[in-house]
Amino acid sequence: MQSFKISKLQVTNFRNLQPDIIEFNSGINCILGENGNGKTNILEALHVLSTRKSFRKNTAFPQFLGIDCEQPEIIFSSVFLDEHSNKMSLSAKMDAKTTHWFVDGQPMKRKLDIKLVFINPFDSYAFHNTSSFRRQWMDQHISQIDSNYKKCLSRYNSSLRFRNSLLSKKPAKYLEQIRAIDLELARYSCILTNTRLKFLSEIESFCTQTFKEIFSEEHLLKITLDSRVIGASEDDIYQMLQERLPKDEIVGHTTYCVHKDDYVLLFDGLNSFEYCSLGQQKMSYLSLLFAYIELFRYNFNSFPMVLIDDVSGELDKNRWQKLINYLERSSFQVLITTANEKFKEELETIHGANKIYVQAGSITNMPNSR
After folding, report:
1. Confidence (pLDDT) at 343
2. Cα gap 203→207, rounded to integer Å
3. Residue 16: which H helix or E strand, with range?
4. For 280, which of 56, 101, 169, 276 could close a Cys bridge (C-beta 3.0–4.6 Å)?
């Protein structure tokens, strides 16, 4: 798998960002400034350019478009470097109806396989409190390292939507159609479950070590899959779907299959949601993410880009420093933001880091005056 690092980025009419050329180095890039000045918008612009979607929910062109723009279009321009430091330009023009993408000036329809990991300040809370977020998190991260899982998940979800539509509308002979769909759901359920278990087994070997490496503390970190179909065959899952069909008919949707599975993050053998403080939950979540990055490197001998949006909440100064020391020792490209003055002071001490100061959407050479 080819890996990329961002070298230069320029965006026009994207949120509050001014069309300044932002330059990045291949290591740590600290994006600094007070709240509301556009730090997160830089991360979002890179995320949209790389993945063709935002990390924010329910966002599209109208939300991206700057309020003071003269023309209703957004222009992205960038330079990426591959693992051999070869340059590649990636650009796009977006309007209300369509987006055109270009690589080295040539039009392209398929998106580039640019891998990145985004770390949000609120995701630790959502991960520990919301089962749907955990499922989405796992599906997203497994899909990024296993293309077959991504395809099977897409087919499973397509079959599930069709099944739910039949259960809701109940057209003629819908039960015959559901029986055929259930064969597909059973097959995909086996594949998805086995892949999830394999992923959890692989990442487990990194979780505890990553926690110790970042925070210098000895704790056993493990994730388990809470599923009723572990060890079940395709026939077993098919029979389960058929047995639940009368209930599904009454409520008008599929009440259970692997799309309802959950995950439990264990901290020293105990559920981290019930046992851990908010600080320990944040430490566990960050350790899980960086364990994923190490697993990614193990599988592909390369790193994704890492975007970190102000994760200083719930962490004390000692843990900030340990996290920063870990980032300094790492080999992946990092873009990290903060408005926390104390955390900002720590980031500014990183030797060799690229400091990017943002004020009112513009890139400045010096810290914001107070």
Report:
1. 86
2. 6
3. none
4. 276
Topology of domain 123-271, per CATH? Answer: Glutathione S-transferase Yfyf (Class Pi); Chain A, domain 2 (1.20.1050)
For residues 162 and 176, what is the distance between their CA atoms, to the nearest angstrom?
13
Q: Which two tokens stand for residue 102?
A: 């270009």
pLDDT, tens digit, 9 for 90 and up, residues 71-94? 899 999 999 999 899 999 999 999
Which residues fall in the annotated binding site for ATP?
Answer: 33-40
Query: Taking a C-beta distance cutoff of 8 angstroms, is the pair 204, 222 a contact?
Result: yes
The average confidence (pLDDT) of the chain is 93
In the 8-state DSSP scheme, what is residue 219? -
Q: Using a CB cutoff of 8 Å and minimum separation of 24, what contacts does 94-100 make? A: 94/61, 94/64, 95/61, 96/61, 96/62, 96/72, 99/52
Report residue 370's pLDDT band, with 50, 70 and 90 as the boundaries: very low
Residues ≥6 apart with Cβ < 8 Å to 227: 193, 196, 258, 261, 262
How far is 209 from 212, CA to CA, in rounded Å? 5
Q: Closest by alpha carbon to 156, among 178, 182, 195, 123?
A: 182
Statement: residue 25 has pLDDT above 80: yes
- What whole-number distance in Å separates Cα of residue 108 and Cα of residue 103? 7
Q: What integer pLDDT is reported at residue 368 of this predicted model?
A: 55
Beta bridge pairs of residue 305: 116
Which amino acids are annotated as binding site, given as ranges? 33-40
Which residue type is seen at 45? A
Cα-Cα-Cα-Cα dihedral of 43, 49, 53, 57, to 10°? 20
What does the pLDDT look like over 121-138, one tens digit per residue? Answer: 899 999 999 999 999 999
The H or E element containing residue 60 is: none
**CATH second-level architecture of 5-115+305-364?**
3-Layer(aba) Sandwich (3.40)
- The residue extents of the domains of the chain are 5-115+305-364, 123-271
The residue to which tokens 């991504």 are assigned: 150
Annotate 271-283 with DSSP letters as a single string: EHHHH--HHHHHH
Stretch 320-331: mean pLDDT, rounded? 90
